[in-house]
Amino acid sequence: SSNMTQPVHSVLFDSNADSNAYYNQQAASGGDNLQFYSSSYGDNYNASPSYYANAPPGPPSNMQSGNNFDYSRSPGSFWSAFGTGGFDDEPPLMEELGVNFQHIRAKSMAVLNPFKPVPSNIMDDADMAGPLLFILMFGIFLRITGKSHFGYIYGVGVLGMVSIFLILNMMSQTGIDWSRTASVLGYCLLPMVMLSGFSVVLQLGSAIGFILSVVSILWCTFSSSGMFTSVLHMNEQRFLVAYPVGLFYACFALMTVF
Question: Which residue ranges does the record assign to the Yip1 domain (predicted)?
């Protein structure tokens, strides 16, 4: 039969066959119209840039890590956690403990220069780091000279703070809390700490020691009364404030001399 003698064209395996002519012939003869569209995957991979070469930016590094810490940033020095600068994402350790060396320095300079006008907001942060440091230094200097007065120091300090706290709240209209009272009294103890330091190398029982003791009492009293009147806006009552405060620092002078 004629069907047996007709050559069979294989589109898949015959490399010499013209695929376009075959499809056109099938379309003209009313076939099933199975047209296969030629793909251009190879052209797209070769001609156009790769998708992965220009991938869209991913999420930021802090989202990838699961927290807000940037691991790509250098960790910084070891002392960054203990200073006042700290890391960018967390407060420094000293600030969390309530120790700020800049504030301690500013308040200490205000005590050492009592003739300079004291700002009214100097005790907004009533920190106790400076007073505790000065009380500790005062006791250590007295211990070096053979006077172990740690119990008397803390006893007189607490009793005097409570007494002055009550007196100031009765005298002023705005009032003051106990933490600011203790902070002012502790910072103004700095001249008395210097006197105890002189007692290590000098004999305060002489005339020079008496003069230094009187100067220290007046210095502490002038500084503390100036801070109290500035914070409480009691400039006209400074001498009334200075009287009990002067008695308070006189007790510490007696500990230093005798």
Answer: 120-255
